[in-house]
Structure formats: structure tokens, C-alpha cells
Amino acid sequence: MRYAMLIFGDDRDWSELSPADEQELMTQVYGWYERWQPTGKIAEGGAELQERSTAKTVRAGADGEPVITDGPYLELKEVIGAVIMLECDDADEAAKIAATWPLGAGMSAVEVRPVMSRE
What we know:
The chain is α+β, with helices and mostly antiparallel strands.
């Protein structure tokens, strides 16, 4: 079954990292991928997202027409910074893999959710 692994954090913390600290954290992230890719548990798909200031939000306006605004809809401390797709037997296995993610500045939590299948 496919699971989405959502990486949450405060992207402002990430942007405050020194280049050396950013490189150290990315080395840990690359190590995570090197550990799990050979197992077939990382499915195709997923993305690292740019910071929240680059977001656009679309919602229904009072007249029912779409309204586009800059930035995220909600002002939150933590936002989704990346999505990784996992292929696991069950939610427990997905959570165990997610628990090995290297949390650091700008990455404070990982959420795992089953991906909807409409087959």
C-alpha cells in the first residue's frame, strides 16, 4: 500500500541554518534515502517544497469565483516542507520507516498517511 510521508517544520528555522549546518542535515537526509531506496520502500513521487513565502492559495470567494492570495492560507508555525511516497505493507511499517527520518532545524515532525486508492 502507498503512504505519504509529510515532513513538517518551520521553514524559517531552515533558512537560518549556516551553510555548514544545512549541508550536515542534508547529508543525514541523503543517508536516509541511501538506507531505504534499495529496500523498495520509497515509491516514485514526492517533492521538497520551497518556503511558504512562495505559496499561492486558491479558495472560493463570496461570489463563488476563485480568489488567489499570496502565501499559505493559514498562518502556522509548522508547514509541510516535503512529501515522500512510501510503499509499505501497513501503517506500522510506514511509521517505523518515518521514525528514522533525521529531524533537525526546519523539520520537527513527520506524519504518515495512507494514500487514497479509488480502484
